[in-house]
Amino acid sequence: xxxxxxSEGLVAPMDRANVDTDSxxxxxxxKSIKRTGYGPNLFDEWRYLDHGEPGxxxxxxxxNPDFVLNQPRYRGAxxxxxxxxxxxGSSREHAPWALLQYGFQAVIAPSFADIFYNNSxxxxxLLIRLDAQTVDRLFKEAEGAAGYRLAVDLEAQTVTTPGGExxxxxxxxxxKHCLLNGLDEIGMTLQHADKIRAFEAQQRERQPWLFS
Amino acid sequence: MTARTLYDKLWDSHAVHVExxxxxxxxxxxxxxxxxxxxxxxxxxxxxxxxxxxxxxxVATADHNTxxxxxxxxxAGITDPVSRLQVxxxxxxxxxxxxRVYFPFLDRQQGIVHVIGPEQGATxxxxxxxCGDSHTSTHGALACLAFGIGTSEVxxxxxxxxxxxxxxxxxxxVVEGTLGRGISAKDIILAIIGKIGSGGGTGYTIxxxxxxxxxxxxxxxxxxxxxxxxxxxxxxxxxxxxxTIEYVKGRPLAPKGAQWDRAVAYWRTLVSDPRxxxxxxxxLDAAMIRPQVTWxxxxxxxxxxxxxxxxxxxxxxxVQREWYKRALKYMDLKPNTPITEIRPDKVFIGACTxxxxxxxRVAAQVVKGKKVAPSIKLAIVVPGSGLVKQQAExxxxxxxxxxxxxxxxxxxxxxxxxxxxxxxxxxxxxxxxSNRNFEGRxxxxxxxxxxxxxxxxxxxxxxxxxDVSNFNG
Lengths: 212, 473
Prior knowledge:
The complex is a heterodimer. By secondary structure, chain A is an alpha/beta fold. Chain A is built from eight helices and seven strands. The longest helix of chain A has 14 residues, at 193-206. Chain B is 31% helix and 16% strand. In chain B, helix 2 (39-47) packs across helix 5, helix 6 (185-196) packs parallel to helix 8 and helix 12 packs across helix 14 (397-404). Chain B has helices spanning 6-12, 39-47, 81-97, 113-120, 151-160, 185-196, 211-214, 218-226, 242-248, 257-267, 318-331, 357-367, 386-394, 397-404, 453-462; strands at residues 15-18, 24-27, 30-33, 58-61, 101-103, 128-131, 145-148, 162-165, 169-176, 204-209, 235-237, 280-285, 292-294, 302-304, 346-349, 378-381, 407-408, 429-432, 447-450. Chains A and B meet through helix 4, helix 7 and helix 8 of A and helix 2, helix 3, helix 5, strand 8 and helix 10 of B.
């Protein structure tokens, strides 16, 4: 897993509630058997005016000038500001892959869908929950001032505005530990291999039909 | 001992190791695998030089990319080379690493992973079951803890047979009373999502209880649990009763003989204790549930067939107002339009939500002896599995559908998400028995109205949405 410690960067405001993973990365790109190459197709249907398919040269497609990420002031953004229930819907891990490969390092929203949350954290994309009023304020500030940046510090669990105001966020200690150290979760779990084998032996006793 | 919920029982009986903060290694009994979310997981496994922990826990099939026509052409029937490679990659991975059972493309028992799991007895009460697919919640209908996972987690389960997770909060959705004529499990779950919202179940595991749930068939319970994720809950479940046991009996992977009796004795304990406490309780009266139709681009944007498209101007919250406005623009609908004036031009009966034999029987009953309205450009029925298809054909349902003007297709996920050729064209409006009405879900620019099989069938005949509870064509 990629490590995450701190990040400071340009903020892009995605002012829509309930952004689903179908919108984050449409189905046609799920046919790939690779983990990479999803960045150009992040928000594909909103970002481009024409229809995209895998294998196209996406740099030649017509951009939708009204889409937030296509506005010059948000070019190079690394922090995505979003509304409630971001990442709802399908379990496709291609969604956090696309966000990361586009260049985002963190997403701030009042709430995230459960599967998307796990998928993101396992890939080193930090999802930060802040209360709806704070997020609303950050939206106003980001939209109000070109070049608006936020600093994210995972160790301290803070988001800091250009004015120096800090907001603390909660994060599961285990997830934080894994992110800070870029740990291989499979390796960690396999340290318990004996316990897993012992459990399995018991399970085989109790419910042999699960092993036939 | 303290009273426990069904979720508590399933969780406790699979906890391998618990850290002080509650982070748990949860043992996984069944791993369902399909072609879309597994290739990168197998690749990761190979790169790390690891092997699957327990091959006989894996049941695999190809369902998302598979065509619903031209099966006589074999693998060449998958015309998109990118799709074909994904299906072939699953073939190779299963060949290399193995599985308890594999239903590849073209197998007569192949089908949607969430249809074939219960159908084959690969899904059993008391199990923990995962799949790299959010609609894995479906399997909770058999009183198991079943939830969707991402590709990293697929790799983790392949390598360790465990998930690392914390217990969620619990929600009890109680549906008492009796459903009216023509109202189905799909209407119950859409009504629930309308009530609690698409994020209402986030961070919860749902158990559905009440007289109306007990009255549902097993397939109805699968429809119900299937869309738990559309309410934000990763898992939904229904306790074991006689219907559960009767359903499982005799299925290919179900226990037999003495093991059957032992299993049944255990399964009967898979109910919430009478005084078990839930973190949240939501109640609905089945008698008040009317046929549901979604009007927007999220499943919570739902109303009754006798309702109207809402007016965003009446929304007080500005974020909500913008969201509604955007949805109406995408759906090309005007505020206050009666739902019965909405005219779909395509009809899709299928998907892991509603492609089982009972769904097809209900839809066939509605269209029998009638004709699809001339304004409908395409009406298709896509059975959930090869076995569902064969059963339907035995009952003559295929002939009822085709006589009415429907196309009768081969099984698969099909137009629910359009990873194969079955897609809406821009501007198409579809009455669909699937589970998601997101922008572009069924095809770029396509407009989806989620409904029950009976409602989709009736809309195909009438050419517009009609109240199926008093529809005679």
